[in-house]
Amino acid sequence: MTPLFARKALLVNGWQEDVRLSIDAGRIVAIDTACRPQGDETIAGIVIPGLCNAHSHAFQRALAGHTEYRGPAEKDNFWTWRQLMYQLAARIDANALQNIARQLYVEMVSSGYTTVVEFHYLHRQPGDRALTDAMLKALIKAADDAGIRMTYVPILYERAGFGDKPLSPEQERFAASLDEFTAHYQQAATLINGPHSLAIGAHSLRAVSADSLERIAEIATSDGVPLHIHIAEQQREVDECMGAYHARPVYWLMDNFDVNSQWCLVHATHMDDEELERVAKSGAVVCLCPSTEANLGDGLFRLQPYLQNDGRIAIGSDSHVTVNPFEELRWLEYGQRLAAQERNVAAVRMRNTGRSLYELAATGGAIAAGDPAGGRLEVGARADLVVLDDHSPMLVGHDADSLLDALVFSGFTLPIDRVMVDGNWKVLDGRHTCVELARQKFAETIGRLNWNEMAAP
Ligand SMILES: [Zn+2]
Fold it and tell me: CATH homologous superfamily of domain 2-49+377-436?
């Protein structure tokens, strides 16, 4: 039994003071409020639930900062960035993936993420015809080293675009037939255990046929696992979908599938009013990735009408240009402010914007990870929590109402003192227990990637 005494904690019934949390076998087994320390506890300042990073392509952590220059193409955009990303992907074997993902996951836990949803399509080792489990095992090892809870989402990628456009040579490592993919999913089910869990997914409507998506949806329903898919991230994808399916992507999906709370729609950037309302009412989670969407010039999700319809959101760091959940939430709100010329756009059901965004992302992220009761501190919940230093200059002078606003909107050094995942402390005194190994292995791998040979198209 691990007892923890918090001077303040964000519980399901709001902020409480002098809280004793009792933790056993990775779960919160008792919560007492307005109590005194009994002498056997770890004393904490402020305790909040850990967040889920609901969309990650771990290998892309190695790309951060390497694509911020203009190439010879007339316009730089998502599609030119993707060519650089493919050049990186071609060099990532299981060993490189493990070292990059370990560093990334250490960074995630250090900044308050306690779960990651790994949207994984880099299935084959370079030069390997067979689809083995080497890349999956690399991710599991990285997650175990960093102590993050992982929801592994094997992703089907079977074509280059609508109309069964054949794969380009760079995409062949991602590709799997439906049979290979379902075999991999079943193999993953035997390898995923401990704190980790399994989901299933399709890359996008352009990369997966309607029949294959139907099969994936059947598996998700019969196994009761989340289904993740990129959708409507780019205007070009909307236009191509109109050409092939005579409907906008989200319309087509909603008309042809029983989209419900098991579905996680990643980005869903380009939706009209009716699509926004239909998704919000379906119970599906939209995973927003504000830093990546800004970095790639994707467009802006219209948050306010979606939240007014009680739409669910999660956040993801996607390409990992930043790994800071508070920064993601800040940019989510700032994008809206810049577009609307208004302030506090996300404060739809709650007065305070930072707290509103944090709680929405915590509960929505947990649903996207397949743990609908997660993302909150209550008896029976997983012991995934973040301890904040209440003496930090960022937080002093803030009361319960504005503490999370300060965290989301002040871009200072994060005042994270400790992080617990599954009942285990992974960050102590602001330092991750695996930081040295992670840095050393990451540096070795990055040194082998030969960035100077990669060039923008
Ligand atoms: Zn993505």
Answer: Urease, subunit C, domain 1 (2.30.40.10)
Q: What is the pLDDT of residue 408?
A: 97
**pLDDT of residue 453 exceeding 80:** no
Distance 436 CA to ligand 1 centre (A): 28
Range with lowest mean pLDDT among 119-128, 206-215, 247-256: 119-128
Q: Across the strands, what pairs with 225?
A: none
Report whether pLDDT(91) > 70. yes
CA of 322 to the centre of ligand 1 (A): 14
pLDDT digits (tens, 9 = 90+) for 376-433: 999 999 999 999 999 999 999 999 889 999 999 998 899 999 999 999 999 999 999 9
DSSP state of 382: B
Q: Annotated catalytic residue: which of 57, 120, 230, 267?
A: 267
Whole-number average pLDDT of the chain:
95
* Cα torsion angle, 112, 115, 117, 118, sign: positive
Q: Is the pLDDT of residue 98 over 80?
A: yes
For 126, other C-beta atoms within 10 Å of its C-beta total 13
Ligand 1 centre and the CA of 33: distance in Å?
41
| CA–CA separation, 302 and 268 (whole Å) | 10
Instruction: Give the architecture (CATH level 2) of 51-368.
Output: Alpha-Beta Barrel (3.20)
Distance between Cα 269 and ligand 1 center (Å): 12
Catalytic residue among 318, 384, 417, 422, which? 318
What are the Cα distances from residue 428, in Å, to 44, 216, 368, 385, 425? Answer: 11, 41, 28, 13, 7
Q: Cite the beta strand spans of 84-177 per DSSP E.
A: 113-120, 149-156
Per DSSP, 72 falls in state: S
Every domain of the chain and the residues it spans: 2-49+377-436, 51-368
> Between residues 400 and 120, which one has the greater pLDDT?
120
Q: What pTM does this model have? A: 0.97
What pLDDT is recorded for position 333?
98
Ligand 1 midpoint to CA 289 (Å): 9
- The answer to whether 203 is a known catalytic residue is no
313 by DSSP, 3-state: which? strand
Asked about 32 being catalytic, the answer comes back as no
**Number of CB atoms found within 10 A of residue 13's CB:** 8
Backbone angles phi, psi at 78, to 5 degrees: -50, -40
